[in-house]
Amino acid sequence: MISVRGLKKYYAKTEALAGIDLEVAAGELFAYLGPNGAGKTTTIRILTGLTRLSAGQASLNGHDIEKQPLAAKRQCGLVPQQINLDSELTVGENLDIHGRIFGMPQALRRQRTARLLDYVELAERRDSLVKQLSGGLKRRLMIARALLHNPRILFLDEPTVGLDPGIRRRIWALVKRIQKDGTTIFLTTHYIEEAEFLADRVAFIDRGRIVAVDSPAALMGRMGSWAIDQVGDQGMQTSYFKSREEARSMAAGQETEFTLRRVNLEDAFLALTGKRVK
Ligand code: ADP
């Protein structure tokens, strides 16, 4: 559904993407995990037609983004990181304008607006001004807007940034439901729990390069299953183990304080890049 080959992007002399290759299958939920400045937003902006690539190729559902930009754009909906709703208009009006931009006839716009507001549980707020909505509700409205023209692929750029943990979980549930209903999802995040919880596969991105792509379980499994953190002479040191028993028996001989925990994606990212995601 998404195919990318040798994708590069330069902003003046800054190399934002240094040659990205990736394939995302239909129906997959694919996460792009990396620290700020890694190149996540740049990738999404190129794939959704908001900026041009410097080199390489990419296609969405078989439509080349350079050669068939309009057809490619119709394949996807985008939820950008910044809230870009029209705050002086109502919830319903924001969706209607988007439908007009996509050339949807009025009857279809009305039908899709009603269905999507129901889907994201905003039907009762249809006539509220957007400026009266909380951050979580605005994010849900942006998701409804991105789905209005029935795209095959949904791009979510840091969908839960700045939201409270409870609200974040509701967005996660919505994202899972959208995938279950057949949409391919590409999301960027710097929250390891988000990638672990949601993604079928995760790409680690660092300084414009993909350093690993695999399922969260396989990426974490490279390290073992359990970890022990200890404060040593050189700061925090972590040791990894295949089983809890193995970790416990090592810990039994320790005099210093330690924490026993499960391995997470941050461990795998740190091992591959030498840096933390956050
Ligand atoms: P991320 O989304 O992972 O935080 P970005 O894709 O936003 O990363 O940025 C990747 C790199 O490109 C960074 O070094 C950033 O400073 C640079 N960059 C992004 N957008 C622009 C721009 N419009 N002009 C110049 N440099 C940019």
Plain-language structure description:
The protein is of the alpha/beta class and 278 residues long. Helices cover 36% and strands 29% of the residues. The protein contains 10 helices and 13 strands. Strands 6-7-8-3-9-10 form a 6-stranded mixed beta sheet, sandwiched between helices. A hairpin with a 2-residue loop joins strand 11 and strand 12 (235-241). Residues 11, 14, 16, 34, 36-42 line the site of adenosine-5'-diphosphate (ADP).
Layout of helices and strands:
Elements: E1 2-11, E2 14-24, E3 29-33, H1 40-47, E4 55-60, E5 63-64, H2 69-74, E6 76-79, H3 91-101, H4 106-119, H5 135-147, E7 153-157, H6 165-180, E8 184-189, H7 192-198, E9 201-206, E10 209-214, H8 216-221, E11 226-232, E12 235-241, H9 244-252, E13 258-262, H10 265-273
Parallel strand pairs: 3-8, 3-9, 6-7, 7-8
Antiparallel strand pairs: 1-2, 1-4, 4-5, 9-10, 11-12, 11-13
Helix pairs in contact: 3-4, 4-5
Bound molecules: adenosine-5'-diphosphate.
CATH architecture of the largest domain: 3-Layer(aba) Sandwich
Order of helices and strands: EEEHEEHEHHHEHEHEEHEEHEH
Counting DSSP H or I runs of 4 or more residues, the number of helices is: 10
Uncertain regions: pLDDT < 50 for 5+ in a row? Answer: none
Rg to the nearest angstrom? 21 Å
Shape: globular
* Estimated helix fraction: 25-40%
What small ligands are held by the chains?
adenosine-5'-diphosphate
Number-wise, the strands total 13
Computed structural class: alpha/beta
How many domains, as an integer?
A: 2
- β-strand percent reads 25-35%
